[in-house]
Amino acid sequence: MIQTKPKQTWEDRVAALKTRQLPRHIAVIMDGNGRWAKRRGLPRIAGHREGVKSVREMIEAGKDLGIEAMTFYTFSTENWNRPRDEVSALWSLLVTAMNREIEDLKRNNVKVRTIGDLSALPPQPREEMFRAIRETEKNTGIVLTLAINYSGRSEIIYAINTLLASGVTSVTEDDVTNALMTKGLPDPDLLIRTSGEMRISNFLLWQIAYAEIFVTDIHWPDFRKEELAVALDWYQTRERRFGKVSEQLRS
Ligand code: IPE
Ligand code: IPE
Ligand code: MG
Q1: Alpha carbons 124 and 99: distance in angstroms, whole number
Q2: Active site residue: 12, 33, 64, 79, which one?
Protein backbone atom coordinates (compact mmCIF):
# COMPACT_ATOMS: atom_id res chain seq x y z
CA MET A 1 0.00 0.00 0.00
CA ILE A 2 1.27 3.47 -0.83
CA GLN A 3 1.79 5.55 2.28
CA THR A 4 0.79 9.15 1.68
CA LYS A 5 2.29 11.75 3.94
CA PRO A 6 -0.46 13.44 5.95
CA LYS A 7 -0.98 16.93 4.56
CA GLN A 8 0.31 19.66 6.84
CA THR A 9 -2.43 21.99 7.96
CA TRP A 10 -1.96 25.76 7.88
CA GLU A 11 -1.75 25.72 11.68
CA ASP A 12 1.14 23.21 11.48
CA ARG A 13 2.86 25.43 8.91
CA VAL A 14 2.47 28.49 11.14
CA ALA A 15 3.78 26.66 14.21
CA ALA A 16 6.85 25.38 12.30
CA LEU A 17 7.61 28.80 10.79
CA LYS A 18 7.31 30.47 14.17
CA THR A 19 10.09 28.34 15.64
CA ARG A 20 12.57 30.37 13.57
CA GLN A 21 13.04 34.04 12.85
CA LEU A 22 10.37 35.59 10.66
CA PRO A 23 10.59 38.89 8.77
CA ARG A 24 9.18 41.87 10.64
CA HIS A 25 8.18 43.57 7.42
CA ILE A 26 7.26 41.90 4.11
CA ALA A 27 6.98 44.00 0.95
CA VAL A 28 5.25 42.64 -2.11
CA ILE A 29 5.34 43.53 -5.81
CA MET A 30 2.06 41.95 -6.87
CA ASP A 31 2.63 41.21 -10.54
CA GLY A 32 1.02 38.95 -13.13
CA ASN A 33 -2.68 39.71 -12.75
CA GLY A 34 -2.94 40.39 -16.47
CA ARG A 35 -1.09 37.22 -17.46
CA TRP A 36 -3.23 35.16 -15.06
CA ALA A 37 -6.36 36.49 -16.77
CA LYS A 38 -4.99 36.11 -20.30
CA ARG A 39 -4.23 32.45 -19.71
CA ARG A 40 -7.85 31.90 -18.85
CA GLY A 41 -9.19 33.99 -21.75
CA LEU A 42 -10.53 36.55 -19.29
CA PRO A 43 -10.27 40.36 -19.32
CA ARG A 44 -7.30 41.78 -17.38
CA ILE A 45 -9.56 43.23 -14.70
CA ALA A 46 -10.65 39.68 -13.78
CA GLY A 47 -7.03 39.08 -12.80
CA HIS A 48 -6.96 42.22 -10.69
CA ARG A 49 -10.20 41.16 -8.99
CA GLU A 50 -8.80 37.73 -8.17
CA GLY A 51 -5.61 39.40 -6.97
CA VAL A 52 -7.57 41.23 -4.26
CA LYS A 53 -8.36 37.82 -2.74
CA SER A 54 -4.63 37.12 -2.51
CA VAL A 55 -4.08 40.38 -0.61
CA ARG A 56 -6.83 39.38 1.78
CA GLU A 57 -5.22 36.00 2.36
CA MET A 58 -1.79 37.57 2.90
CA ILE A 59 -3.17 39.82 5.64
CA GLU A 60 -4.83 36.85 7.36
CA ALA A 61 -1.64 34.83 7.08
CA GLY A 62 0.48 37.74 8.28
CA LYS A 63 -1.76 38.06 11.31
CA ASP A 64 -1.51 34.32 12.08
CA LEU A 65 2.27 34.54 11.84
CA GLY A 66 2.60 37.69 13.91
CA ILE A 67 4.20 39.70 11.07
CA GLU A 68 4.40 43.40 12.04
CA ALA A 69 3.98 45.00 8.66
CA MET A 70 3.10 44.19 5.06
CA THR A 71 3.41 46.61 2.17
CA PHE A 72 1.75 45.99 -1.19
CA TYR A 73 2.62 47.73 -4.46
CA THR A 74 -0.89 48.53 -5.61
CA PHE A 75 -0.46 51.22 -8.29
CA SER A 76 2.78 52.75 -9.47
CA THR A 77 3.19 56.26 -10.86
CA GLU A 78 4.09 54.49 -14.12
CA ASN A 79 0.78 52.60 -14.15
CA TRP A 80 -0.98 55.83 -15.25
CA ASN A 81 0.42 54.98 -18.69
CA ARG A 82 -1.88 51.95 -19.00
CA PRO A 83 -5.03 52.12 -21.17
CA ARG A 84 -7.58 54.50 -19.62
CA ASP A 85 -10.16 51.76 -19.21
CA GLU A 86 -7.81 49.63 -17.14
CA VAL A 87 -6.80 52.55 -14.94
CA SER A 88 -10.41 53.47 -14.19
CA ALA A 89 -11.33 49.82 -13.59
CA LEU A 90 -8.48 49.62 -11.05
CA TRP A 91 -9.82 52.65 -9.16
CA SER A 92 -13.33 51.16 -9.11
CA LEU A 93 -11.90 47.91 -7.81
CA LEU A 94 -10.01 49.73 -5.05
CA VAL A 95 -13.23 51.42 -3.95
CA THR A 96 -15.25 48.18 -3.98
CA ALA A 97 -12.56 46.19 -2.20
CA MET A 98 -11.96 48.77 0.56
CA ASN A 99 -15.69 49.12 1.08
CA ARG A 100 -16.12 45.39 1.40
CA GLU A 101 -13.07 44.76 3.57
CA ILE A 102 -13.08 47.74 5.95
CA GLU A 103 -15.19 46.10 8.68
CA ASP A 104 -12.97 42.99 8.69
CA LEU A 105 -9.84 45.15 8.76
CA LYS A 106 -11.21 47.00 11.77
CA ARG A 107 -12.21 43.78 13.53
CA ASN A 108 -8.78 42.27 12.89
CA ASN A 109 -6.98 45.27 14.41
CA VAL A 110 -5.27 46.06 11.07
CA LYS A 111 -3.83 49.57 10.74
CA VAL A 112 -4.14 50.85 7.17
CA ARG A 113 -1.57 53.28 5.79
CA THR A 114 -0.69 54.44 2.32
CA ILE A 115 2.48 55.64 0.65
CA GLY A 116 2.38 57.60 -2.60
CA ASP A 117 0.57 60.72 -3.74
CA LEU A 118 -3.14 60.23 -3.13
CA SER A 119 -3.94 63.79 -4.23
CA ALA A 120 -3.82 62.76 -7.90
CA LEU A 121 -6.43 60.00 -7.47
CA PRO A 122 -10.03 60.38 -8.54
CA PRO A 123 -12.13 61.58 -5.55
CA GLN A 124 -13.84 58.27 -4.74
CA PRO A 125 -10.79 56.05 -4.26
CA ARG A 126 -9.00 58.93 -2.53
CA GLU A 127 -11.83 59.41 -0.02
CA GLU A 128 -12.14 55.66 0.48
CA MET A 129 -8.47 55.44 1.40
CA PHE A 130 -8.66 58.46 3.71
CA ARG A 131 -11.62 56.80 5.43
CA ALA A 132 -9.77 53.48 5.84
CA ILE A 133 -6.75 55.28 7.31
CA ARG A 134 -8.94 57.31 9.66
CA GLU A 135 -11.07 54.42 10.84
CA THR A 136 -8.12 52.15 11.57
CA GLU A 137 -5.62 54.68 12.91
CA LYS A 138 -5.97 53.54 16.52
CA ASN A 139 -5.49 49.86 15.64
CA THR A 140 -2.41 48.22 17.07
CA GLY A 141 -2.10 45.01 15.01
CA ILE A 142 -0.47 44.38 11.64
CA VAL A 143 0.32 47.52 9.64
CA LEU A 144 -1.01 47.24 6.10
CA THR A 145 0.57 49.78 3.77
CA LEU A 146 -0.79 50.19 0.26
CA ALA A 147 1.58 51.88 -2.18
CA ILE A 148 -0.77 53.86 -4.42
CA ASN A 149 0.41 56.30 -7.08
CA TYR A 150 3.80 55.47 -5.62
CA SER A 151 7.32 55.35 -6.95
CA GLY A 152 10.54 55.06 -4.99
CA ARG A 153 12.19 57.96 -6.78
CA SER A 154 9.28 60.34 -6.27
CA GLU A 155 9.23 59.36 -2.59
CA ILE A 156 12.92 60.22 -2.28
CA ILE A 157 12.32 63.57 -4.00
CA TYR A 158 9.45 64.21 -1.61
CA ALA A 159 11.78 63.44 1.33
CA ILE A 160 14.51 65.74 -0.02
CA ASN A 161 12.04 68.60 -0.46
CA THR A 162 10.65 68.08 3.04
CA LEU A 163 14.16 68.22 4.45
CA LEU A 164 15.09 71.30 2.42
CA ALA A 165 11.93 73.06 3.58
CA SER A 166 12.98 72.45 7.18
CA GLY A 167 16.09 74.54 6.48
CA VAL A 168 18.77 71.86 6.95
CA THR A 169 22.02 72.04 4.99
CA SER A 170 23.17 68.44 5.51
CA VAL A 171 21.37 65.23 6.40
CA THR A 172 22.03 61.82 7.93
CA GLU A 173 20.64 58.43 6.86
CA ASP A 174 18.21 58.61 9.76
CA ASP A 175 17.00 62.03 8.60
CA VAL A 176 16.21 60.61 5.16
CA THR A 177 14.58 57.48 6.62
CA ASN A 178 12.35 59.63 8.78
CA ALA A 179 11.41 61.97 5.95
CA LEU A 180 10.17 59.09 3.77
CA MET A 181 6.50 58.12 3.65
CA THR A 182 7.35 54.82 5.35
CA LYS A 183 8.44 56.69 8.49
CA GLY A 184 8.08 54.49 11.55
CA LEU A 185 8.13 51.18 9.65
CA PRO A 186 11.13 48.88 9.88
CA ASP A 187 12.84 48.32 6.51
CA PRO A 188 11.42 45.29 4.66
CA ASP A 189 13.34 42.11 5.52
CA LEU A 190 11.75 40.24 2.66
CA LEU A 191 10.68 41.49 -0.76
CA ILE A 192 8.46 39.15 -2.75
CA ARG A 193 7.83 39.60 -6.47
CA THR A 194 5.38 37.33 -8.26
CA SER A 195 5.26 36.46 -11.96
CA GLY A 196 8.95 36.06 -12.58
CA GLU A 197 10.24 39.52 -13.48
CA MET A 198 13.69 40.19 -11.98
CA ARG A 199 13.24 43.88 -11.43
CA ILE A 200 12.32 46.38 -8.74
CA SER A 201 10.05 48.63 -10.86
CA ASN A 202 10.77 51.71 -8.74
CA PHE A 203 9.53 50.19 -5.46
CA LEU A 204 10.91 51.20 -2.03
CA LEU A 205 14.34 52.02 -3.46
CA TRP A 206 15.79 53.32 -0.20
CA GLN A 207 14.12 50.84 2.14
CA ILE A 208 15.09 47.58 0.41
CA ALA A 209 18.83 48.21 0.79
CA TYR A 210 19.23 44.90 2.66
CA ALA A 211 15.99 43.03 1.90
CA GLU A 212 16.11 39.37 0.90
CA ILE A 213 14.52 39.08 -2.55
CA PHE A 214 12.19 36.20 -3.42
CA VAL A 215 10.97 36.02 -7.02
CA THR A 216 8.47 33.35 -7.99
CA ASP A 217 6.92 32.48 -11.36
CA ILE A 218 3.50 32.15 -9.75
CA HIS A 219 1.10 34.90 -10.84
CA TRP A 220 -0.24 37.12 -8.07
CA PRO A 221 -3.84 35.78 -8.11
CA ASP A 222 -2.43 32.29 -7.46
CA PHE A 223 -0.14 33.44 -4.63
CA ARG A 224 -1.92 32.35 -1.47
CA LYS A 225 -1.01 31.25 2.08
CA GLU A 226 0.81 28.14 0.96
CA GLU A 227 3.00 30.15 -1.45
CA LEU A 228 3.76 32.64 1.32
CA ALA A 229 4.84 29.74 3.53
CA VAL A 230 7.22 28.61 0.75
CA ALA A 231 8.71 32.11 0.55
CA LEU A 232 9.13 32.20 4.32
CA ASP A 233 10.73 28.73 4.38
CA TRP A 234 13.23 30.05 1.85
CA TYR A 235 13.75 33.26 3.86
CA GLN A 236 14.58 31.19 6.92
CA THR A 237 17.42 29.48 5.03
CA ARG A 238 19.07 32.83 4.24
CA GLU A 239 22.09 33.96 6.16
CA ARG A 240 21.71 37.69 6.61
CA ARG A 241 25.30 38.83 6.82
CA PHE A 242 24.93 42.61 6.45
CA GLY A 243 28.48 42.81 5.16
CA LYS A 244 30.05 40.52 7.76
CA VAL A 245 31.51 37.05 7.21
CA SER A 246 29.67 33.87 8.21
CA GLU A 247 31.97 33.05 11.12
CA GLN A 248 31.18 36.35 12.83
CA LEU A 249 27.49 35.51 12.87
CA ARG A 250 27.97 32.14 14.55
CA SER A 251 30.30 33.29 17.29
C1 IPE B 1 -0.01 43.68 -11.37
O2 IPE B 1 -0.40 42.87 -12.42
C3 IPE B 1 -1.08 44.66 -10.96
C4 IPE B 1 -0.79 46.07 -11.22
C5 IPE B 1 0.30 46.55 -11.72
C6 IPE B 1 -1.86 47.02 -10.91
P7 IPE B 1 -0.22 43.34 -13.93
O8 IPE B 1 -1.46 44.03 -14.36
O9 IPE B 1 1.02 44.10 -14.09
O10 IPE B 1 -0.11 41.94 -14.68
P11 IPE B 1 0.81 41.59 -15.92
O12 IPE B 1 2.21 41.96 -15.56
O13 IPE B 1 0.29 42.39 -17.07
O14 IPE B 1 0.63 40.13 -16.10
C1 IPE C 1 4.75 46.85 -10.72
O2 IPE C 1 4.14 46.06 -11.66
C3 IPE C 1 3.73 47.79 -10.12
C4 IPE C 1 2.73 47.16 -9.27
C5 IPE C 1 2.73 45.91 -8.89
C6 IPE C 1 1.67 48.03 -8.82
P7 IPE C 1 4.20 46.46 -13.21
O8 IPE C 1 3.56 45.34 -13.96
O9 IPE C 1 3.63 47.80 -13.43
O10 IPE C 1 5.77 46.49 -13.46
P11 IPE C 1 6.60 46.57 -14.81
O12 IPE C 1 6.11 47.75 -15.57
O13 IPE C 1 6.35 45.29 -15.55
O14 IPE C 1 8.01 46.69 -14.35
MG1 MG D 1 2.93 43.62 -14.60
Answers
A1: 11
A2: 79
